[in-house]
């Protein structure tokens, strides 16, 4: 008798659970189905985005390498055209890399003014990450050492020549060279001495600064 009672109770409980499930489904079935559809759509969208991201980045990378090869082979005009296309249609960081490389090619080609303009445009573009903008500013400053005034070099480099900035030594070198070229040896010495006194300055930069200080000392 006890066994029959247990079986009866289980059947009743199973039936109650079945009825509860039916009631929940009748009440919330539409919402649950919609959630399930949204999850599936979201998963498909994520997979599609990942595929598009990978293929777009890969295609831009291939285009960038092809343009670099053209530049290496001294096909400057073709390389510049390829970099211009990548700058307009590339994906991820490649448009900025193409813009930087194109500016370098212009400088190598002898069009320093166009190169400075290109680097300055990069440095002022808020959509570009700060390290890349700072690097462009330094490149412009070095070009202006030969073609511009101390004030023009300072406009690009002076704000980077501060303690804590990762490019401070390069900025100080550009400023020192510009000052030396302008005939202001005292100012040049100050900038080069800051490089020498900075124990975190890259060895090559520190050695050049020390050499220039020795040259200036020997000509006094």
Describe, in short, the structure shown.
This protein is mainly α.
Polypeptide structure, described:
The chain is mainly alpha-helical and 220 residues long. 83% of the residues lie in helices and 0% in strands. It contains nine helices and no strands. It is elongated. Residues 1-6 have low confidence and may be disordered.
Explain the layout of strands and helices.
Blueprint: H1 2-72, H2 76-89, H3 94-109, H4 112-123, H5 130-147, H6 150-157, H7 168-181, H8 185-197, H9 203-218
Q: What is the averaged pLDDT score?
A: 79
Major sheet description: none
Structural class: mainly alpha
The share of residues in extended strands comes to under 5%
Shape: elongated
* Count of strand segments: 0
How are helices and strands ordered from N to C? HHHHHHHHH
Q: Bin the helical content.
A: over 70%
Number of helix segments? Answer: 9
**Backbone CA Rg:** 32 Å
* Euclidean distance between termini CA atoms: 119 Å
Sum up the structure in keywords:
mainly alpha; 9 helices; 220 residues
